[in-house]
Amino acid sequence: MTEKLILASGSPFRKKMLENAGVDVEAIPAELDERAVEAPLTDSGTSPQDVALVLAEAKAVAVSEAHPGRLVLGCDQTLSFDGVVLHKPADMEAARRRLLKLSGKTHQLNSAVVLVRDGETLWRDVEVASLTMRHLSPAFIGHHLARVGDKALSSVGAYQIEGEGIQLFEKIDGDYFTIVGLPLLPVLAELRELGAIDG
User: Fold this and answer.
1) What range does the domain containing 52 cover?
2) Cα 175 → chain centroid
3) Which pLDDT does position 1 carry in this prediction?
4) 85 within domain boundaries
């Protein structure tokens, strides 16, 4: 027997990944001030992986409390560079500065997933991918951002690896699904373990 999963996220991409994998899912985004939840963690030196886990769990718990009995998946992804968590660029100039900062260097994407039912956490996991950008000239960055437009602002790294953003990289260590924000294989394994999907 399978059950309909609630995805505590407004990301159409995450929802589509689950649907493509055959999971019956509905998206109910959490009403949560992420920066307010994150602020005390950053001040206390919490690792970027744990920041992602806390945010994913907060989203899942918030949605779970409004939907008793339902299984809820919370997700969050942080980008860490030199141990610091970076956030989505506010505008195209910030995106340009972000790509210049990451050019020629390695950063990590930390993708956390948490399953909650009735406010109780059943399972949590965080997967990490390391991405090394090639050396990018300011001119190339300008042309790249002009082509991709506002899509650059929808991602913390100012790129979409599933699109033209792949051209920015020389090396990637990690799972594709982790990079795009939902480590699908561990999630599917746990859903099978819980009997939420056929195994």
Assistant:
1) 5-193
2) 13
3) 54
4) yes
